[in-house]
């Protein structure tokens, strides 16, 4: 994509001295970190410590009060849609239409982003355990299945960085383990991730985790 | 991003909104039903004074169309905001203003076009002479998209508010007034038999202007509402 994505300098996502204020309260200030391919940023902290706000800032949905966000050395707000093709965001809300079927939802998600080569929509549904549910209205799926559909959305675009806000909500234990394998696969392919979770993450040891605790800074 | 994938994203989103509208068609009928009922009640309320009905006819049709449009506006982004789809649009690899335009077009096809289709029947009910009906239709096909386009900016600004209905009306109605003035004037002029090129040109200019500017303003407003 960009000229500077040479092997000598791998693409990194860098945050410099971020400041976030919400309702006249400073959630975090002077927060700097960088995420490199294969690394996962894990945000920890109490409820209301600004985890979701930070993830939304990383997506570019929310503006930080001050500070810089650099994708491959360039400001993400200047890059705009060009930056957006590199990220996939899974928020509190699934972002699926309940009146559409899982397959229709995925088709739209693929059209909005940059489609990943070599994966069919049915295959992505199969990978999250929704094989056989592709033609049922999403409304009729259980909460956990709807969450799985949202995760399937991550698999079908070519996004390099996955931004995940409590991705394991309403998943059963087996489902969580399965999703952890999917996330590991993404990281092993040279992807990046930024996530919050209350669940203890059971990634394999070789995955590099960058932990930031927002309430102990 | 290539132009091809942008057009396909546009048509994908347009189709999505039409399919969604079709699957919830009970809600779809509301604005049109409102439009028909309001206009149909007027002759009953006024009585058998045909001169008076004829005089207020164009105004009644257009005021009803305007209120019907206002009634339907809130649904443009509401459900997408509630279920998180809107965040996904903002993070799309395509320019948000183009995606927004697809949504506005779908919204107009679902709420504006039906008004255009039933208008001739209501014109007969309101004693508007047959010679003026083509002009009425023209004003509607030019004017109702303007209502959707201008309205989208207001909706985008208020979608994050819990009860944005009143603010939306206050925000958007003043901007609707020019359309109302020129459209009703065109129909009244056509009833008398004078050419209406001037009014129709101004309506066309409004349509072109809002078509270019509104999607960008809406995209920016949505960004503000979500942050």
Can you walk me through this structure?
The complex is a heterodimer of chains A (217) and B (227). Chain A has 217 residues and is α/β, with parallel strands linked by helices. Chain A is built from 7 helices and 9 strands. A 5-stranded parallel sheet of chain A has the order 6-7-8-3-9, with helices on both faces. Chain A has a 4-stranded antiparallel sheet with strand order 2-1-4-5. In chain A, 42% of the residues are buried. Chain B has 227 residues and is mostly helical. Chain B has one domain. Chain B has 9 helices and no strands. Chain B has helices at 3-23, 25-46, 50-73, 78-83, 85-90, 96-125, 133-158, 165-192, 197-226. Chain B: Keywords: Cell inner membrane, Cell membrane, Cytochrome c-type biogenesis, Membrane, Transmembrane, Transmembrane helix, Transport. Chain B: The chain crosses the membrane at residues 31-47, 59-77, 113-130, 136-159, 166-184, 190-214.
Helix content of chain A: 25-40%
Number of beta-strand segments of chain A = 9
Structural class of chain B: mainly alpha
Average pLDDT of chain A, rounded to a whole number, is: 87
CATH superfamily of the largest domain in chain A: P-loop containing nucleotide triphosphate hydrolases
Strand content of chain B: under 5%
Written as H for each helix and E for each strand, in order along the chain, the element string of chain A is EEEHEEHHEHHHEHEE
Instruction: Tell me the quaternary state.
Output: heterodimer
Q: How many structural units, i.e. domains of chain B?
A: 1
- The CATH topology of the largest domain in chain A turns out to be Rossmann fold
What ranges of chain A have pLDDT less than 50 throughout 5 or more consecutive residues? Answer: 1-8
Helix fraction bin of chain B: over 70%
Percent of residues in beta strands of chain A = 25-35%
What's the end-to-end separation of chain B, in Å? 25 Å
């Amino acid at each position: 994509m960009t000229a500077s994505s040479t092997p000598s300098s791998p693409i990194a996502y860098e945050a410099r001295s971020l400041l976030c204020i919400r309702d006249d309260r400073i959630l975090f200030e002077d927060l700097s970190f960088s995420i490199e391919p294969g690394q996962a940023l894990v945000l920890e902290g109490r409820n209301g410590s600004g985890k979701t706000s930070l993830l939304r800032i990383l997506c570019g949905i929310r503006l930080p009060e001050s500070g810089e966000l650099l994708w491959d050395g360039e400001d993400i707000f200047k890059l705009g849609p060009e930056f957006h093709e590199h990220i996939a965001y899974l928020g509190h809300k699934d972002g699926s239409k309940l009146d559409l079927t899982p397959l229709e939802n995925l088709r739209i998600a693929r059209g909005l982003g940059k489609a990943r080569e070599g994966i069919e929509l049915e295959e992505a549904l199969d990978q999250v355990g929704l094989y056989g549910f592709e033609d049922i209205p999403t409304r009729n799926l259980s909460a956990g299945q709807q969450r799985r559909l949202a995760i399937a959305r991550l698999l079908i675009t070519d996004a390099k960085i996955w931004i995940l806000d409590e991705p394991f909500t309403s998943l059963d234990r087996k489902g969580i383990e399965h999703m952890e394998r999917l996330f590991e696969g993404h990281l092993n392919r040279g992807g990046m991730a930024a996530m919050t979770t209350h669940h203890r993450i059971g990634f394999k040891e070789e995955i590099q985790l960058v932990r930031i605790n927002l309430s102990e800074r | 991003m290539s132009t091809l994938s942008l057009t396909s994203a546009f048509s994908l989103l347009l189709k999505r909104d039409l399919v969604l509208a079709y699957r919830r068609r009970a809600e779809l009928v509301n604005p049109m039903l409102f439009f028909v009922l309001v206009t149909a009640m007027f002759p009953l309320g006024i009585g058998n004074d045909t001169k008076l009905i004829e005089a207020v006819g164009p105004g009644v049709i257009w005021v009803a169309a305007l209120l019907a449009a206002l009634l339907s506006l809130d649904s443009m982004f509401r459900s997408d905001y509630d279920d998180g789809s809107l965040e996904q649009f903002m993070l799309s690899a395509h320019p948000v203003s183009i995606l927004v335009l697809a949504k506005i077009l779908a919204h107009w096809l679902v709420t504006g076009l039906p008004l255009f289709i039933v208008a001739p029947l209501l014109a007969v009910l309101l004693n508007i002479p047959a010679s003026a009906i083509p002009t009425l239709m023209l004003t509607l096909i030019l004017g109702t998209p303007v209502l959707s386009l201008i309205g989208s900016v207001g909706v985008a600004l208020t979608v994050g508010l819990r009860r944005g209905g009143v603010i939306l009306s206050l925000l958007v109605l003043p901007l609707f007034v020019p359309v109302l003035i020129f459209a009703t004037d065109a129909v009244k002029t056509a009833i008398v038999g004078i050419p209406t090129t001037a009014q129709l040109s101004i309506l066309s200019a409004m349509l072109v202007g809002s078509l270019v500017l509104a999607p960008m303003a809406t995209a920016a407003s949505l960004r503000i509402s979500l942050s």
